[in-house]
Design goal:
The complex is a heterodimer. By secondary structure, chain A is of the alpha/beta class. Helices cover 36% and strands 22% of the residues of chain A. In chain A, the strands form 3 sheets. Chain A has a 9-stranded mixed beta sheet. The longest helix of chain A has 15 residues. Chain B folds into 3 domains: 132 residues, no CATH class; 281 residues, Alpha-Beta Barrel (Anaerobic Ribonucleotide-triphosphate Reductase Large Chain), CATH 3.20.70; 191 residues, no CATH class. In chain B, strands 3, 9, 10, 11 and 12 form a 5-stranded mixed beta sheet that branches. A 5-stranded mixed beta sheet of chain B has the order 4-5-6-14-13. In chain B, strands 1-2 form a two-stranded parallel ribbon. Classes of the chains: A alpha/beta, B alpha/beta.
Chain lengths: 321, 791
C-alpha cells in the first residue's frame, strides 16, 4: 500500500460525515432489483472516460448547469473573489482559478444552476433516505448500491453504513475499482448483507491501465484474485468492464480478459459500452474531457460471445444510453 | 396471433373515420311527435321501440358478433333530448375539422340533421338546464372554475347485471315485470309510477328481442346470397344466435358474447351513454366458456379467442358526440368501457380462470383502446396472471390498468356494499370501485372543481384575477393571514363552498332527469330497479352514489407548501409580493419563480411534509362531500381524477405560487405536477399511496410513465411488478403505467400516420396518441419520464 493511501485511510476513521454526490433512487442497472445508488466523492483513479468526473476529486466542487441558468446575474455580485462574470453565450463564466468554492453563489442560485457537487452526510442521514424504498427492495430483490467515486476511500464510513443497512434488513451492493487496501475490501465484501460486489476491470493490461486511469492494475488484479478465491466473496463478484473503442476492446485486451476470468474462476461479468454523458459534467465543473467512442453493437456482441466461450463467464451488457 | 378475419376488421377500424349519421335522430323525432302524451317512462320506451323496429340492420363482412348503434360503421348518434340542438347546429361543420375528436358527416346527412334539429329547438336538456341553473353557477362553469354534470348528457355509466341477463334472458325480465304489474293495483302516485316503469321495461325488452330477430332475418338474407360456403354457415349461426339471445339464456359461448353485445349496443342506442363497463367478464362468461371450450370441446380455445376479439372490436364502434369543450376535457373519443379480470370470488377465493388469461390475450393481440382492461390483484392472484399484465405494460400497451382488491373493497363497503358484494366489486365509471354484481349506479360525473382557481380566489379574497369579478367566497385579505393554518382554512372554506355549489346544481339536474329522462333498459338490468319499480335516475339501484372530482390536486398541495415555506417560514417574500408576482405571471421575476419552484418541497417526491398537506386537503374534501345526500337518496362520493380537464382548467388559471405559469395545464389526476417528481418513480408511488386512498370512495387515478429502457427483459418485469405490488401494499387503488419515450411521442406528433397504434393512457382511459390534440400531446411529453439508468 502506498503512503498516501494509508494516510487517507487513517483520516477516514475519524470522519462523521462524507461528501455524497447524490442518492439516486430507482437505479435498475446497479445490481439486482430496484436499488438506490449512493455516490461517494473521491477516487484514486482518474479514468479519462469517467462518466462521473465530478466525483473524482475528494474535495467539494462547484458545478454549473447552463441549461438551468436564467441569466439573472445574481451570483456575480455574491462572489467574494470576483470569479463569476456575465457571458452572452454561456449565461455566466466561472474563473475556476479564482473560485474558492465558498459556495455563496450556489446558496442563492434559486434556479439550481450553480450548486455544490456533493453534500456532507452522516450514516444516519443516508440510511433514512435509502430506507424510504425498502418495500421496493423487498418486492424485487433489490437494495442499495454504494458507488462513487470510490467507496473504499471512505472505508470506515462505508463499513458503518453497511452495518446500519443490515440493522434495517437492507441488502448492499458494492461498486468498486478495487485500487485500495485488500484487508478493508475483503472485510466489507464479506459482510453478510453485502450480496454483490461490482468490481471494475478497466483494462487487463497494466500499461494501458496506467495510461488511461493514472494507475497500474497490479493491486486491482491481486484484490480481484482475493475476492475470487474466497468462498464467501466469490459468488458475489461481478466484474464490470468498460468497452472503449480502440482502447479496451482490442482483440488483445479481450483475450487477456478472457484468460484472466478463466484463471480466476470469474462467474459473472458486465460489459459497459462507453457513453459520452460524462463530458458535459466535466465541462460543468470546469474542464474538458476527451471524446472516446463505443464499439459497434456487432463488436459488443462479438466480445460478449468470446468471453462467454473463453472463460464460461456469464455476460450482461448494460449502460447503453 | 390474430386470425385473418380479425386482422381485416381491425384494419377497417383503423381506416375508418368516425361518422355522425342522421338515422336515429330522424326516427326519434318522428316517435317524439307520435307518442307525446304517454307517461314519461312509457313514452320514452315507445320512442326507443320505434327506433329499434326501424333502424338499419347492419351486418358487416367478417363479423361474428353483430349489432350496431347506428346505420354506419364507427357511427355516432345525436341525442338532442339529452344534449342540445344549438351546439349540434353551430358545431356541425366544426365536427369535421376540429382538432379534437373529429367526425365525418355526409352532405346528405348534414342537410337532414339541420332540418330535423329545428324540431328540437328549446326542447333539449341543455335548453332546460340553461333556463333553470342558477346564474352564479352558470357563470362559474363558463369561467372554468367548476363544472356540473348532467346538463348536457345522460347519467350513463352502467355496469349491469350480465349474470342475470345470461341466466334469464329478456323473457325472464319481462315475466318478472309482468308479475309485478299483476300484483299491483295502483292507489298512489308512487304505485302508478312503478307500474309505468315496469310497463316501460317490458316495451324495451321486447324491442330488443325484435331488433335481434330483425338481425337474424338480415343474416339469413345475406346467407341466401352468399356464395362462400364457410361464410354462409357463419351467417346462419349468427341468425340462430340472434333468435336465441337476448330473449333466452345462451346455449353457447358465442351466444353469450352476442347477448353481452346486444345489451351494450342497446345502452348506446337508447341514450348517449359512456363508461358502460363489461364488469367481471371472466366470471359471468366462465360457465359458457368452460362448457364449450373445456368440458364439451365444441369449439377450440383459438375459436373462443377470435370470437372474444370480435366482441372487443365491436366495443370500439360506439361513441358519444361531445361539444368542443368536452372534446378537450375528455380527449381521444374515450368511452371507458372497462373489462375486468382476476380478483376474488364472492366467497373470498381466487377468481382467476383460463378465461382471465384469454381476455387479456385478446387485448394483447388487438392493441385497441376499447375495451379498457382492468386487472384485479389480491394476495392470491397467480403470479402468471400479473406477469401477463406486466408484459403488456412492458410492450408499451399501457393496458391493463392494475387495481388493488383490498382498497377497492374498502371503497365498496364505504358505498354500502356487503362483504360479498365488496369481494365482487366492479368498476362503475373508469376507476371507481363499487359493490359488484350490477347493483350499483355511480352516475359518476357530478362535477369537478378547479383547485388552481381556489388558490387564486383565496389570494384575491374571492375575486377571479382573470376577470376581475367577485366569484368566490370572501375569505379575507390574505396579507393579513398570520400563518399557513389561516391560509389553509380559507382554502378549505373556498373549496367546500364550490363543491356545495356543484351539489346544488347537480341535485337540480338529477331532479329533472328523474322526471324527464329515466333510462329504462340500463335501469332494468341494474339490480334493485325492477325490484323497487324505480329507474336508476329515481334511485332504484341497490346502491347509488355520484362522484365529485378535482383538477389540480397536486398544484394545491404545492402552492400551500410554497406559501408556507417561502412566505411564512423563511420570509423570502411577502404575501403581497407573491400576489403581485402571480398577477403579472412572474414577468421580470424569473428568479423568484425559480425559488418557488425549487425551494419548497413538491408533491410526488416521498416528502412527508408536502404529501401530508395533500392528504389533509383531499381528506377534508372527501369527508365533507361524502356526507352529502344526492337528489335520489344516494350520496356523493369523492375521488381524485381529472381526465384531461386539467388542460382547459389550466388555460384559465393564472400563475400560481407553486411556480406554475399562467395557462399551463394543471397536474394530471392524482399524479404529481408534470416534471416535479424528480426523485424517480418509487418516490412518486410512495407519495400517491400516502394519500390514504381507501377513504376516497371514488378512488385516485394514477398514471405513471416509465422510460422503456428502465424496464427491459425479465428484470424489467420484476421491476414493474415490484412497483405495482408496493403501491398496493401501501393502499393505492389504481395504477396505470405508460411505457413510451419522448422521442417516439415527438415523432408521432410529426408523422401521426406512422404511429396510429401508439397508445397512451390519458387519465384513466386509453387514447391513441395521434388522436389527441397538440395540447394534450405536449402534456404527455412533458410528464416526467422516469429514466432509470445510473448517472
Amino acid at each position: 500500500m502506498s503512503k498516501d493511501i494509508a494516510d487517507n485511510n487513517n483520516t477516514d476513521a475519524a470522519e462523521n460525515t462524507v461528501l455524497v454526490g447524490s442518492i439516486q433512487k430507482f437505479s435498475t442497472e446497479d445490481g439486482p432489483g430496484i436499488r438506490t445508488t449512493v455516490f461517494f466523492k473521491g477516487c484514486p483513479l482518474a479514468c479519462r472516460w469517467c462518466h462521473n468526473p465530478e466525483m473524482i476529486d475528494p474535495d467539494q466542487q462547484l458545478i454549473f448547469t447552463k441549461s438551468k441558468c436564467i441569466g439573472c446575474g445574481h451570483c456575480i455580485g455574491l462572489c467574494p473573489n470576483g470569479a463569476i462574470s456575465a457571458d452572452p453565450e454561456e449565461g455566466i463564466v466561472i474563473d475556476r482559478d479564482r473560485c474558492g468554492v465558498c459556495l455563496r453563489c450556489a446558496s442563492e442560485c434559486w434556479a439550481g444552476a450553480l450548486r455544490p457537487v456533493a453534500r456532507e452526510m452522516t450514516v444516519e442521514e443516508i440510511i433514512e433516505k435509502v430506507a424510504q424504498d425498502k418495500e421496493f427492495y423487498e418486492s424485487t430483490g433489490g437494495g442499495i448500491t454504494l458507488s462513487g467515486g470510490e467507496i473504499l476511500t471512505h472505508g470506515t464510513f462505508i463499513g458503518e453504513l453497511i452495518d446500519a443497512a443490515a440493522e434495517r434488513g437492507i441488502d448492499v451492493c458494492l461498486d468498486t475499482c478495487g485500487h485500495w487496501d485488500a484487508e478493508l475490501l475483503m472485510s466489507l465484501a464479506k459482510r453478510p448483507n453485502v450480496t454483490d460486489v461490482l468490481y471494475d476491470l478497466k483494462s487487463p493490461d497494466d500499461d494501458i491501465h496506467k495510461e488511461y486511469t493514472g494507475v497500474g492494475n497490479s493491486l486491482i488484479l491481486s484484490n480481484m484474485k482475493k475476492l475470487a478465491d474466497d468462498p464467501v466473496t466469490a459468488p458475489k463478484l461481478n466484474i464490470r468492464m468498460p468497452l472503449v473503442a480502440g482502447v479496451t476492446d482490442t482483440d488483445e485486451q479481450i483475450r487477456k480478459a478472457g484468460e484472466l476470468f478463466a484463471d480466476f474462476g470469474i462467474r459473472k461479468a458486465t460489459l459497459l459500452p462507453y457513453h459520452d454523458l460524462g463530458r458535459s459534467k466535466k465541462r460543468n465543473i470546469g474542464g474538458e474531457q476527451e471524446l472516446f467512442e463505443a464499439p459497434s453493437e456487432d463488436r459488443i456482441e462479438e466480445i460478449a460471445a468470446f468471453l462467454e466461450d473463453a472463460s464460461g463467464v456469464s455476460i450482461e451488457v448494460l449502460g447503453r444510453v | 396471433m390474430l386470425t385473418p378475419r380479425v386482422k381485416r376488421i381491425r384494419e377497417k377500424y383503423f381506416d375508418t373515420i368516425p361518422q355522425i349519421t342522421s338515422e336515429r335522430l330522424v326516427l326519434e323525432t318522428e316517435a317524439y311527435k307520435k307518442f307525446a302524451g304517454d307517461a314519461v317512462p312509457i313514452f320514452r320506451a315507445k320512442v326507443v321501440d320505434y327506433i329499434m323496429e326501424r333502424m338499419t340492420t347492419l351486418i358487416m363482412e367478417d363479423e361474428l358478433i353483430v349489432g350496431t348503434a347506428t346505420n354506419a360503421y364507427r357511427g355516432a348518434n345525436l341525442h338532442p333530448e339529452f344534449q342540445s340542438s344549438s351546439w349540434y347546429i353551430s358545431d356541425i361543420d366544426d365536427f369535421q375539422t376540429r382538432p379534437k375528436d373529429p367526425y365525418y358527416i355526409s352532405p346528405e346527412d348534414r342537410e337532414i340533421i339541420l332540418e330535423t334539429l329545428k324540431y328540437w329547438e328549446g326542447k333539449s336538456m341543455e335548453d332546460l338546464s340553461d333556463s333553470i341553473m342558477p346564474e352564479h353557477i352558470k357563470e362559474l362553469e363558463s369561467d372554468d372554475i367548476l363544472c356540473v354534470g348532467l346538463e348536457n348528457g345522460v347519467s350513463g355509466e352502467t355496469t349491469c347485471d350480465h349474470e342475470k341477463i345470461l341466466a334469464v334472458g329478456m323473457r325472464g325480465y319481462i315475466e318478472e315485470c309482468q308479475a309485478n304489474i299483476d300484483a299491483t293495483l295502483p292507489q298512489t302516485r308512487e304505485d302508478q309510477e312503478k307500474v309505468d316503469f315496469w310497463k316501460a321495461c317490458i316495451i324495451q325488452a321486447e324491442a330488443l328481442i325484435k331488433y335481434a330477430h330483425r338481425m337474424a332475418e338480415e343474416a339469413e338474407r345475406q346467407a341466401a346470397e352468399c356464395s362462400d360456403e364457410k361464410r354462409r354457415q357463419e351467417l346462419l349461426t349468427i341468425a340462430e344466435n340472434c333468435r336465441v339471445v337476448p330473449e333466452n339464456p345462451p346455449e353457447t359461448y358465442m351466444q353469450a358474447l352476442q347477448s353481452v353485445w346486444f345489451a351494450h349496443v342497446y345502452f348506446h342506442i337508447e341514450v348517449c351513454t359512456t363508461a358502460c363497463g363489461f364488469g367481471r367478464f371472466d366470471q359471468y362468461m366462465w360457465p359458457y366458456y368452460k362448457k364449450d371450450v373445456i368440458d364439451e370441446k365444441n369449439i377450440t380455445r383459438e375459436e373462443a379467442l377470435e370470437m372474444t376479439e370480435c366482441l372487443y372490436l365491436k366495443s370500439c364502434e360506439v361513441y358519444e358526440v361531445r361539444d368542443n369543450w368536452y372534446a378537450t376535457a375528455f380527449a381521444g373519443y374515450p368511452m371507458w368501457q372497462t373489462l375486468m379480470v382476476g380478483g376474488q370470488t364472492r366467497d373470498g377465493k381466487d377468481a382467476t380462470n383460463d378465461l382471465s388469461y384469454l381476455a387479456l390475450e385478446a387485448a394483447d393481440e388487438l392493441k385497441t383502446k376499447q375495451p379498457v382492461m382492468a386487472l384485479r390483484v389480491w394476495e392470491e392472484t397467480p403470479e402468471e396472471l400479473i406477469r401477463f399484465g406486466c408484459k403488456m405494460i412492458q410492450d408499451g400497451q399501457a393496458n391493463p390498468g392494475f387495481f388493488n382488491d383490498e382498497t377497492a373493497m374498502q371503497m365498496s363497503i364505504g358505498k354500502g356494499g356487503t362483504l360479498e358484494e365488496a369481494r365482487d366489486w366492479t368498476i362503475v365509471g373508469c376507476i371507481q370501485a363499487a359493490p359488484g354484481g350490477g347493483c350499483a349506479d355511480g352516475s359518476p360525473d357530478a362535477g369537478y372543481v378547479n383547485m388552481g382557481k381556489m388558490v387564486e380566489f383565496v389570494l384575491h379574497n374571492g375575486v377571479d384575477p382573470r376577470t376581475g369579478k367577485l366569484m368566490g367566497l370572501e375569505t379575507g385579505d390574505p396579507r393579513e393571514f398570520r400563518d399557513i393554518e389561516e391560509f389553509k382554512d380559507a382554502l378549505k372554506k373556498q373549496i367546500i363552498h364550490h363543491y356545495d355549489l356543484i351539489r346544488v346544481g347537480y341535485n337540480l339536474m338529477q331532479s329533472n332527469h328523474m322526471n324527464r329522462y329515466p333510462v329504462i333498459f340500463a335501469s332494468m338490468v341494474t339490480k334493485g330497479c325492477v325490484e323497487s319499480g324505480k329507474s336508476v335516475q329515481h334511485g332504484g339501484a341497490k346502491y347509488s352514489t355520484c362522484g365529485m372530482y378535482v383538477t389540480g390536486a397536486a398544484n394545491l398541495a404545492d402552492c400551500i407548501a410554497a406559501i408556507d415555506t417561502c412566505v411564512f417560514k423563511d420570509k423570502d417574500l411577502t404575501m403581497d409580493e407573491l400576489i403581485k408576482a402571480c398577477d403579472t405571471n412572474f414577468e421580470g421575476q424569473e428568479r423568484l419563480r425559480q425559488l418557488l419552484l425549487n425551494k419548497p418541497p413538491k408533491f410526488g417526491n416521498n416528502d412527508p411534509y408536502v404529501d401530508g398537506i395533500y392528504r389533509e386537503m383531499m381528506h377534508y374534501v372527501a369527508e365533507n362531500v361524502q356526507s352529502w345526500p344526492d337528489a335520489r337518496g344516494g350520496h356523493y362520493a369523492f375521488g381524485i381524477d381529472s381526465q384531461t380537464m386539467n388542460v382547459p382548467h389550466g388555460e384559465v388559471t393564472g400563475a400560481l405560487p407553486d411556480g406554475r405559469l399562467a395557462g399551463e395545464p394543471l397536474c394530471d389526476a392524482s399524479s404529481p405536477m408534470m416534471g416535479r417528481d424528480t426523485e424517480g418513480p418509487t418516490s412518486t408511488v410512495k407519495s400517491v399511496a400516502a394519500i390514504d386512498q381507501p377513504i376516497l370512495q371514488e378512488g385516485a387515478l394514477f398514471n405513471l410513465r416509465f422510460d422503456p429502457k428502465g424496464i427491459q427483459g425479465e428484470k424489467g418485469l420484476d421491476i414493474v411488478e415490484g412497483v405495482i405490488k408496493t403501491f398496493f401494499k401501501d393502499g393505492g387503488e389504481h395504477i396505470q403505467i405508460n411505457v413510451v419515450d419522448n422521442e417516439t411521442l415527438m415523432k408521432a406528433q410529426q408523422t401521426p400516420e406512422n404511429y396510429r397504434d401508439l397508445m397512451v393512457r390519458v387519465a384513466g382511459y386509453m387514447a391513441y396518441f395521434t388522436e389527441l390534440d397538440k395540447g394534450a400531446q405536449d402534456a404527455i411529453i412533458y410528464r416526467t419520464a422516469h429514466l432509470s439508468n445510473a448517472e
